[in-house]
Write a structure and sequence with these properties.
By secondary structure, the protein is an alpha+beta fold. The protein has 3 helices and 9 strands.
Amino acid sequence: MAGDDRVRAFVAIAVSRKIREALGRVREAVADRPWASDVRWTAPENQHLTLHFLGDVERSFCTSLLREMEHRLADVAAFELQLCDLVAFPSTRRPRVIAARIADEESTSRLAEAVDAAVRSIGGDGGERRFRPHITLGRFRTPPRRPLDLSDRAIEPEAMTVHEVVLFRSELRPNGATHTAMGRVALAGTAVED
């Protein structure tokens, strides 16, 4: 457990109400699938697109990271994020996570690279895994016995404009995690609202 001077943190794109509503409709659409009851669904208020998971870090690291991201993201323009389809990670044969994939991976990947560069520049660990932009809908408690059939996996193409990134604190609790914004960094041409 993180002490008072340490927090469990990550940098992410917070999703809009319309995206959360669209993801809620996806959950309803798959509710009758045999595997759906084995999924621990993510609470709508916790849905986000992770750009960089930091783990347990010093609060001072978070303060430095916010400043560094302000510098590194100053030239990254706002962009449209659109839902695409359902996907399972690591695969439909051995699913651990069910998620919504993002249509345009390039803009989101560029943003994640800029965040990684900010993290590395202040001594943090860079993103080592291949970045695959997605919004987690839920995690399997036990893996399904059969591969998931996601053939009708299209999601209504709801979109939002990404204006900022958020540094979140994540507190693990028995009934799930609670995410609290520690700071926001605006992308080029936008202003952060308090």
